[in-house]
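User: C-alpha coordinates for this complex, please. No commentary.
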Amino acid sequence: MGRSPCPSGKKDIGIRKGAWTTAEDMILTDYIAAHGEGKWRSISKQTGLKRSGKSCRLRWLNYLRPDIKRGNITRDEEDLIIRLHKLLGNRWSLIAGRLPGRTDNEVKNYWNSYLSKQVIPRDHKDEQNDTVNNTVKNNNKEAKMEDTHQLMMPSPAAPPVPPPFLPLEDPLNLPAAPASPSSMCGEGLLSPDITTGMSDLLEPAAGFSSFDEFGFGQFDLVLEGDWGSLQCIEESYASHYDGSWDCTALNYITDEWIL
DNA sequence: AACGCTGTCAACCGCCCTCGG
DNA sequence: GCCGAGGGCGGTTGACAGCGT
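Assistant:
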Protein backbone atom coordinates (compact mmCIF):
# COMPACT_ATOMS: atom_id res chain seq x y z
CA MET A 1 0.00 0.00 0.00
CA GLY A 2 1.01 3.58 -0.24
CA ARG A 3 3.60 5.14 -2.39
CA SER A 4 6.73 3.50 -3.57
CA PRO A 5 9.96 4.87 -2.24
CA CYS A 6 10.85 6.88 -5.29
CA PRO A 7 12.74 9.95 -4.30
CA SER A 8 11.39 12.66 -6.54
CA GLY A 9 12.90 15.48 -4.78
CA LYS A 10 15.03 18.08 -6.25
CA LYS A 11 14.55 20.17 -3.18
CA ASP A 12 14.51 17.29 -0.71
CA ILE A 13 17.80 15.71 -1.60
CA GLY A 14 18.65 12.98 0.84
CA ILE A 15 15.14 12.74 2.20
CA ARG A 16 13.51 9.37 1.70
CA LYS A 17 9.90 9.25 0.61
CA GLY A 18 7.35 6.54 0.17
CA ALA A 19 6.48 3.52 2.23
CA TRP A 20 8.20 3.05 5.54
CA THR A 21 10.27 -0.05 6.13
CA THR A 22 10.09 -2.21 9.24
CA ALA A 23 13.58 -1.09 10.18
CA GLU A 24 12.58 2.56 9.97
CA ASP A 25 9.51 1.88 12.06
CA MET A 26 11.64 0.26 14.73
CA ILE A 27 14.07 3.15 14.81
CA LEU A 28 11.28 5.67 15.16
CA THR A 29 9.42 3.63 17.76
CA ASP A 30 12.53 3.09 19.84
CA TYR A 31 13.44 6.74 19.72
CA ILE A 32 10.00 7.90 20.81
CA ALA A 33 9.88 5.26 23.54
CA ALA A 34 13.11 6.67 24.88
CA HIS A 35 12.60 10.38 24.31
CA GLY A 36 8.89 10.92 23.87
CA GLU A 37 6.98 12.65 21.12
CA GLY A 38 7.79 16.04 19.70
CA LYS A 39 10.87 17.63 18.17
CA TRP A 40 10.13 15.76 15.00
CA ARG A 41 12.77 17.41 12.92
CA SER A 42 15.45 16.52 15.36
CA ILE A 43 14.48 12.87 15.22
CA SER A 44 15.93 12.41 11.77
CA LYS A 45 19.15 14.01 12.84
CA GLN A 46 19.40 12.06 16.06
CA THR A 47 18.47 8.68 14.61
CA GLY A 48 19.88 8.94 11.12
CA LEU A 49 16.45 8.38 9.62
CA LYS A 50 16.36 9.97 6.20
CA ARG A 51 12.84 11.19 6.74
CA SER A 52 11.38 14.62 7.17
CA GLY A 53 10.05 15.60 10.55
CA LYS A 54 6.58 15.71 9.15
CA SER A 55 6.90 12.24 7.78
CA CYS A 56 8.07 10.94 11.17
CA ARG A 57 5.20 12.62 12.93
CA LEU A 58 2.67 11.27 10.47
CA ARG A 59 4.03 7.76 10.64
CA TRP A 60 3.92 7.78 14.42
CA LEU A 61 0.50 9.33 14.80
CA ASN A 62 -1.21 7.34 12.08
CA TYR A 63 0.43 4.00 12.37
CA LEU A 64 2.96 3.34 15.10
CA ARG A 65 1.27 4.78 18.17
CA PRO A 66 0.56 1.94 20.61
CA ASP A 67 -3.01 3.04 21.23
CA ILE A 68 -4.03 2.84 17.59
CA LYS A 69 -7.12 0.72 17.22
CA ARG A 70 -6.91 -1.70 14.34
CA GLY A 71 -9.81 -3.29 12.56
CA ASN A 72 -13.05 -2.21 11.02
CA ILE A 73 -14.97 0.83 12.07
CA THR A 74 -17.83 -0.35 14.24
CA ARG A 75 -21.45 0.57 13.76
CA ASP A 76 -21.30 2.86 16.81
CA GLU A 77 -18.19 4.57 15.54
CA GLU A 78 -19.76 5.02 12.14
CA ASP A 79 -22.82 6.53 13.74
CA LEU A 80 -20.66 8.92 15.72
CA ILE A 81 -18.62 9.90 12.68
CA ILE A 82 -21.77 10.75 10.77
CA ARG A 83 -23.14 12.83 13.62
CA LEU A 84 -19.89 14.60 14.28
CA HIS A 85 -19.36 15.31 10.63
CA LYS A 86 -22.81 16.80 10.50
CA LEU A 87 -21.80 19.01 13.39
CA LEU A 88 -18.21 19.83 12.59
CA GLY A 89 -17.73 19.30 8.89
CA ASN A 90 -14.34 18.13 7.68
CA ARG A 91 -12.54 18.74 10.96
CA TRP A 92 -11.12 15.26 10.99
CA SER A 93 -8.78 15.72 13.90
CA LEU A 94 -11.64 16.82 16.11
CA ILE A 95 -13.82 13.96 14.97
CA ALA A 96 -11.01 11.48 15.48
CA GLY A 97 -10.46 12.92 18.91
CA ARG A 98 -13.86 11.59 19.90
CA LEU A 99 -13.04 8.13 18.60
CA PRO A 100 -10.42 6.54 20.84
CA GLY A 101 -7.73 4.79 18.89
CA ARG A 102 -8.81 6.19 15.55
CA THR A 103 -6.73 8.68 13.62
CA ASP A 104 -7.85 11.67 11.65
CA ASN A 105 -6.41 10.07 8.53
CA GLU A 106 -8.38 6.90 9.12
CA VAL A 107 -11.60 8.76 9.74
CA LYS A 108 -11.01 10.94 6.71
CA ASN A 109 -10.32 7.96 4.49
CA TYR A 110 -13.34 6.12 5.81
CA TRP A 111 -15.54 9.10 5.15
CA ASN A 112 -14.19 9.77 1.67
CA SER A 113 -14.28 6.18 0.53
CA TYR A 114 -17.44 4.98 2.21
CA LEU A 115 -19.66 7.27 4.21
CA SER A 116 -19.68 10.24 1.85
CA LYS A 117 -21.12 8.04 -0.86
CA GLN A 118 -23.94 6.97 1.39
CA VAL A 119 -24.78 10.04 3.41
CA ILE A 120 -24.44 12.73 0.75
CA PRO A 121 -26.48 10.99 -1.91
CA ARG A 122 -29.11 10.29 0.71
CA ASP A 123 -29.27 13.92 1.77
CA HIS A 124 -29.46 14.95 -1.84
CA LYS A 125 -32.23 12.47 -2.39
CA ASP A 126 -34.20 13.86 0.54
CA GLU A 127 -34.18 17.24 -1.10
CA GLN A 128 -35.91 15.93 -4.14
CA ASN A 129 -37.69 12.88 -2.87
CA ASP A 130 -40.72 13.54 -4.99
CA THR A 131 -38.84 13.10 -8.19
CA VAL A 132 -36.75 10.07 -7.53
CA ASN A 133 -37.77 7.06 -9.49
CA ASN A 134 -36.38 3.93 -7.89
CA THR A 135 -35.34 1.18 -10.18
CA VAL A 136 -34.58 -2.45 -9.65
CA LYS A 137 -31.01 -1.69 -10.52
CA ASN A 138 -30.72 0.61 -7.53
CA ASN A 139 -32.43 -1.61 -5.02
CA ASN A 140 -29.33 -2.83 -3.27
CA LYS A 141 -27.77 0.60 -3.21
CA GLU A 142 -30.91 2.15 -1.85
CA ALA A 143 -31.19 -0.48 0.83
CA LYS A 144 -27.70 0.33 1.95
CA MET A 145 -28.41 4.03 1.97
CA GLU A 146 -31.54 3.45 3.98
CA ASP A 147 -29.50 1.54 6.48
CA THR A 148 -27.20 4.49 6.93
CA HIS A 149 -30.04 6.94 6.92
CA GLN A 150 -31.50 5.21 9.94
CA LEU A 151 -28.39 6.06 11.86
CA MET A 152 -29.17 9.69 11.43
CA MET A 153 -32.81 9.40 12.41
CA PRO A 154 -34.07 9.04 15.96
CA SER A 155 -34.35 5.39 16.77
CA PRO A 156 -37.31 3.97 18.71
CA ALA A 157 -35.07 4.01 21.77
CA ALA A 158 -33.89 7.53 21.08
CA PRO A 159 -33.91 10.09 23.87
CA PRO A 160 -37.17 11.84 24.54
CA VAL A 161 -37.85 15.03 22.71
CA PRO A 162 -36.21 17.81 24.66
CA PRO A 163 -37.95 20.87 25.89
CA PRO A 164 -38.05 23.70 23.41
CA PHE A 165 -34.68 25.31 23.08
CA LEU A 166 -35.66 28.91 23.18
CA PRO A 167 -33.61 32.06 23.06
CA LEU A 168 -32.14 32.68 26.43
CA GLU A 169 -33.92 35.14 28.58
CA ASP A 170 -32.99 38.53 28.01
CA PRO A 171 -30.73 40.08 30.63
CA LEU A 172 -27.97 39.84 28.13
CA ASN A 173 -30.08 41.25 25.39
CA LEU A 174 -29.35 38.33 23.17
CA PRO A 175 -30.68 38.23 19.68
CA ALA A 176 -33.80 36.26 18.98
CA ALA A 177 -33.54 32.88 17.35
CA PRO A 178 -33.88 33.05 13.62
CA ALA A 179 -36.89 31.62 11.92
CA SER A 180 -34.77 29.22 9.94
CA PRO A 181 -31.18 28.35 9.22
CA SER A 182 -31.50 29.93 5.83
CA SER A 183 -32.40 33.22 7.40
CA MET A 184 -29.31 32.93 9.52
CA CYS A 185 -27.26 32.47 6.42
CA GLY A 186 -28.96 35.38 4.83
CA GLU A 187 -27.97 37.60 7.68
CA GLY A 188 -24.43 36.42 7.50
CA LEU A 189 -24.59 34.77 10.90
CA LEU A 190 -23.81 31.40 9.44
CA SER A 191 -22.12 30.43 6.26
CA PRO A 192 -24.20 28.52 3.73
CA ASP A 193 -22.31 25.44 4.70
CA ILE A 194 -23.79 25.14 8.12
CA THR A 195 -21.48 22.42 9.34
CA THR A 196 -18.30 24.32 8.74
CA GLY A 197 -19.82 27.70 9.29
CA MET A 198 -20.73 26.94 12.86
CA SER A 199 -17.21 26.23 13.85
CA ASP A 200 -16.11 29.53 12.42
CA LEU A 201 -18.90 31.31 14.17
CA LEU A 202 -18.59 29.91 17.65
CA GLU A 203 -15.30 31.24 18.81
CA PRO A 204 -14.19 30.82 22.37
CA ALA A 205 -16.19 32.69 24.94
CA ALA A 206 -15.88 33.27 28.63
CA GLY A 207 -16.53 30.17 30.67
CA PHE A 208 -15.46 27.75 27.98
CA SER A 209 -11.97 27.35 26.65
CA SER A 210 -13.13 26.62 23.17
CA PHE A 211 -16.01 25.97 20.91
CA ASP A 212 -15.08 22.32 20.99
CA GLU A 213 -15.33 22.08 24.75
CA PHE A 214 -18.67 23.80 24.72
CA GLY A 215 -19.97 21.98 21.70
CA PHE A 216 -18.88 18.51 22.69
CA GLY A 217 -20.23 18.97 26.17
CA GLN A 218 -23.60 19.60 24.67
CA PHE A 219 -23.15 16.90 22.10
CA ASP A 220 -22.56 14.24 24.73
CA LEU A 221 -25.65 15.31 26.61
CA VAL A 222 -27.73 15.16 23.48
CA LEU A 223 -26.47 11.66 22.81
CA GLU A 224 -27.35 10.69 26.34
CA GLY A 225 -30.69 12.43 26.25
CA ASP A 226 -29.75 14.42 29.33
CA TRP A 227 -31.78 17.47 28.54
CA GLY A 228 -31.71 18.74 32.10
CA SER A 229 -27.95 19.00 32.13
CA LEU A 230 -28.05 20.48 28.69
CA GLN A 231 -30.27 23.23 30.00
CA CYS A 232 -27.81 23.83 32.84
CA ILE A 233 -25.01 24.25 30.35
CA GLU A 234 -27.11 26.69 28.44
CA GLU A 235 -27.78 28.66 31.58
CA SER A 236 -24.08 28.62 32.35
CA TYR A 237 -23.42 29.84 28.90
CA ALA A 238 -25.91 32.62 29.38
CA SER A 239 -24.26 33.70 32.59
CA HIS A 240 -20.88 33.86 30.92
CA TYR A 241 -22.02 35.30 27.68
CA ASP A 242 -19.69 38.10 26.69
CA GLY A 243 -21.10 38.90 23.32
CA SER A 244 -18.44 37.17 21.32
CA TRP A 245 -20.74 34.37 20.26
CA ASP A 246 -24.06 34.45 18.65
CA CYS A 247 -26.32 32.28 20.73
CA THR A 248 -28.85 31.83 18.01
CA ALA A 249 -26.49 29.41 16.36
CA LEU A 250 -26.53 27.23 19.45
CA ASN A 251 -30.22 26.75 19.13
CA TYR A 252 -29.73 25.65 15.60
CA ILE A 253 -26.91 23.30 16.51
CA THR A 254 -29.09 21.52 18.99
CA ASP A 255 -31.88 21.27 16.47
CA GLU A 256 -29.41 19.80 14.01
CA TRP A 257 -28.31 17.16 16.47
CA ILE A 258 -31.79 16.18 17.39
CA LEU A 259 -32.89 16.03 13.80
C1' DA B 1 -5.34 -15.42 -18.40
C1' DA B 2 -5.30 -10.66 -19.33
C1' DC B 3 -6.99 -6.36 -18.96
C1' DG B 4 -9.43 -2.42 -17.11
C1' DC B 5 -11.96 -0.30 -13.51
C1' DT B 6 -12.71 0.91 -8.82
C1' DG B 7 -11.91 1.13 -3.86
C1' DT B 8 -8.70 1.49 -0.10
C1' DC B 9 -5.39 3.71 2.57
C1' DA B 10 -0.54 5.12 3.59
C1' DA B 11 1.93 8.96 2.58
C1' DC B 12 2.86 13.52 0.72
C1' DC B 13 1.81 18.47 -0.13
C1' DG B 14 0.75 22.96 0.95
C1' DC B 15 -1.51 26.10 3.82
C1' DC B 16 -2.18 27.88 8.25
C1' DC B 17 -1.36 28.71 13.16
C1' DT B 18 1.51 29.24 17.20
C1' DC B 19 5.44 30.59 19.50
C1' DG B 20 9.90 32.32 20.49
C1' DG B 21 13.48 35.60 19.30
C1' DG C 1 4.95 44.24 14.97
C1' DC C 2 7.87 41.17 12.12
C1' DC C 3 9.97 36.95 10.89
C1' DG C 4 11.27 32.19 10.76
C1' DA C 5 10.90 27.51 12.60
C1' DG C 6 8.11 23.90 14.03
C1' DG C 7 4.03 21.57 14.07
C1' DG C 8 -1.02 20.58 12.94
C1' DC C 9 -4.42 19.84 9.68
C1' DG C 10 -7.25 18.96 5.48
C1' DG C 11 -6.84 17.81 0.72
C1' DT C 12 -4.77 15.05 -2.66
C1' DT C 13 -1.95 11.49 -4.70
C1' DG C 14 -0.70 7.04 -6.21
C1' DA C 15 0.48 2.04 -5.36
C1' DC C 16 -1.81 -1.91 -4.56
C1' DA C 17 -5.72 -5.27 -4.16
C1' DG C 18 -9.91 -7.02 -5.60
C1' DC C 19 -13.43 -7.57 -8.74
C1' DG C 20 -15.80 -7.82 -13.20
C1' DT C 21 -15.58 -8.64 -18.05
